[in-house]
Amino acid sequence: MDGAHDATLEFSYADERRARIVAESVRVEVGEIDDARSAAAVEREGRVVSVRVDAADIVALRAGTNSWLRLVSVAETVAADAAERPSADRETDPHEGSREA
């Protein structure tokens, strides 16, 4: 969509790994939450993730921008929480112990 209104949101991270995790997490939503009035694209260049929101009108732009801000915020929170967990927790099989004998 090449709407009459657009906004580009840029998010900078301490390292490329965190930027990649956030970008890949939110990129899966592109096309899923688009509608007839707005669409978005996600790109990453180094440590910077950019989300461009195109919209047919200013109300749709505000709604789309708010949606993408929430999605990025959730991805950042999950990435930060995962980074703080001890590596042993990340290597444990999540299904271990839940299997019945």
TrEMBL record:
Region (Disordered): 80-101
Composition bias, Basic and acidic residues: 82-101
Top-rank taxon, per record: Archaea
Pfam families: Pcc1
Family: Belongs to the CTAG/PCC1 family.
Name this protein carries in UniProt: KEOPS complex subunit Pcc1
Organism in which the protein naturally occurs: Halopelagius inordinatus
